[in-house]
């Protein structure tokens, strides 16, 4: 908590620090230790953690960085929060994000800008810039994020931290505020691959309250990471995704990525180039499917059920419909409004087949690309993000330039496959570069081994 106090004036990673609750949780854990109640506790027991403000926490304000949720205090915990509490892990607070996790720089937060610890004039990436910066600035050893199109991995790359998107269905989404439900996944943010593995083991597993939760145990992730730390990758086949590189990728990013590939070879891995011909269409299809789901999910913020309510101005009939319109006009930011409008358009009669239907077909082709690739290799690799951290304001006036940050991360969300970003050294500009691994569905352990070997 002292480190948070010292770092926050320059970093601004937190929307809410729950210091009192964290100390109470730490005391409760100490009492369990003193009473010898340590049976079955995970290795991370007692280690504090920060949580992206997209995940609901009982009694602690949860805003999704939106004015429309300001003042809302959830009456329940997300499943992942229940699991952290059961593990005796104190929750330090809630971290900043782009409003409703929509963005790639955290600049779309309604409340504050979070700074990149490597250069405070630059963004930490997004949408989970708060969690990534909090870990990168040593304010917390661990954090949780949510990843719909890259919001754990891209901020990981830009802040030199580890970020994991588990297999879709591998970690319960119960209590994760819905952005695009078929793409959203909660995952770990950490400083080491082993820490991420241990955290995913704590939060993962079947949950009957999430209808897309997979009824299978969490794979042996920490064991895979420890195996990787021996730095022997003989027998591992690595596929370099041909379509994720080249044009649009900063030279320093490609250079560090190529260094990483050479290191994997030095440790005995066999590296081949693999083509995923439909990956170049992933971004376009994502920006149809994601807003469609956003437009549906965000319909619940109607001025009735949560947080903000704004009455229509005087002279306008005081009807429920006008109250909803006034609330949504005042409560949602520009980027969120843009996506709701895009989504409603893509789903509307007459356009549905041409837009949403086509995007779903592209999604199937991306899934097949992964299946084809994983019939030849064990893991796929690519740079996580085409560039290093950019300056505040650089991409705020150009939504398409902002969207391009996620070209390399989106394919995994479209297919539901696990993926992670680890730090791969510094680019020519002195800023961190991320190295991404993809593994087959429900085989998250397969990426943890080479990731731990490379870090
Ligand atoms: N940057 C992407 C977007 O704006 C990813 C968001 C996310 O993963 N939550 O949609």
Automatic annotation (TrEMBL):
Residues 1-445 form the Amidase domain. The keyword Protein biosynthesis applies. InterPro entries: Amidase, Amidase_CS, Amidase_dom, AS_sf, GatA. PANTHER family: GLUTAMYL-TRNA(GLN) AMIDOTRANSFERASE SUBUNIT A, TRANSAMIDASE. The active site is at residues 52, 127, 151. The keyword Transit peptide does not apply. This is Glutamyl-tRNA(Gln) amidotransferase subunit A. Keywords: ATP-binding, Ligase, Nucleotide-binding, Protein biosynthesis. Pfam families: Amidase. Gene3D superfamilies: Amidase signature (AS) domain. It comes from the Bacteria. Heterotrimer of A, B and C subunits. Allows the formation of correctly charged Gln-tRNA(Gln) through the transamidation of misacylated Glu-tRNA(Gln) in organisms which lack glutaminyl-tRNA synthetase. The reaction takes place in the presence of glutamine and ATP through an activated gamma-phospho-Glu-tRNA(Gln). Belongs to the amidase family. GatA subfamily. Its EC number is 6.3.5.7. The gene is gatA. It catalyses: L-glutamyl-tRNA(Gln) + L-glutamine + ATP + H2O = L-glutaminyl-tRNA(Gln) + L-glutamate + ADP + phosphate + H(+). It is an enzyme of class 6 (ligase).
């Amino acid at each position: 908590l002292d480190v948070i106090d010292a770092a926050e004036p320059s970093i601004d990673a937190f929307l809410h620090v729950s210091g009192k609750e964290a100390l109470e949780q730490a005391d409760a854990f100490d009492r369990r230790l003193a009473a010898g109640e340590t049976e079955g506790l995970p290795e991370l027991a007692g280690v504090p953690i920060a949580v992206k403000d997209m995940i609901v926490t009982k009694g602690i304000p949860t805003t999704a960085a939106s004015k429309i949720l300001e003042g809302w205090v959830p009456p329940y915990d997300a499943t992942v929060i229940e699991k952290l509490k059961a593990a005796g892990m104190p929750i330090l607070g809630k971290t900043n994000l782009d409003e409703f996790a929509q963005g790639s720089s955290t600049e779309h937060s309604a409340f504050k800008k979070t700074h990149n610890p490597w250069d405070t004039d630059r963004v930490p990436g997004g949408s989970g810039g708060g969690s990534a910066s909090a870990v990168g600035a040593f304010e917390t050893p661990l954090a949780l994020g949510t990843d719909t199109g890259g919001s754990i991995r891209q901020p990981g790359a830009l802040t030199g931290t580890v970020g994991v998107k588990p297999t879709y269905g591998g970690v319960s989404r119960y209590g994760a505020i819905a952005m695009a439900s078929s793409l959203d996944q909660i995952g770990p943010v950490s400083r080491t691959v082993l820490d991420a593995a241990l955290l995913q083991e704590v939060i993962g597993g079947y949950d009957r309250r999430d209808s897309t939760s997979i009824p299978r145990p969490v794979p042996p992730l920490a064991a895979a990471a420890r195996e990787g730390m021996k730095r022997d990758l003989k027998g591992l086949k690595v596929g370099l995704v041909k379509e994720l590189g080249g044009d649009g990728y900063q030279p320093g990013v490609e250079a560090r990525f190529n260094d990483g590939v050479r290191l994997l070879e030095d440790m005995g891995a066999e590296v081949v180039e693999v083509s995923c011909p439909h990956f170049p269409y992933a971004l376009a299809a994502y920006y149809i499917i994601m807003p469609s789901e956003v437009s549906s999910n965000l319909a619940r913020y109607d001025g009735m059920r949560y947080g903000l309510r704004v009455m229509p101005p005087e002279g306008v009939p005081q009807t429920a419909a006008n109250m909803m319109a006034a609330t949504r006009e005042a409560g949602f930011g520009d980027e969120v409004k843009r996506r709701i409008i895009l989504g409603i358009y893509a789903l509307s009669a007459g356009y549905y087949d041409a837009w949403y239907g086509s995007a779903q077909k592209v999604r199937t082709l991306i899934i097949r690309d992964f299946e084809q690739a994983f019939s030849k290799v064990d893991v796929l690799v690519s740079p996580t993000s085409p560039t290093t951290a950019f300056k505040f304001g650089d991409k705020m006036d150009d939504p398409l330039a902002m969207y391009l940050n996620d070209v390399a991360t989106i394919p995994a969300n479209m297919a539901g496959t696990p993926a992670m970003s680890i730090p791969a050294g510094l680019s020519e500009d002195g800023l961190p570069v991320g190295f991404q691994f993809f593994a087959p569905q429900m085989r998250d352990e397969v990426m943890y081994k080479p990731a731990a070997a490379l870090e």
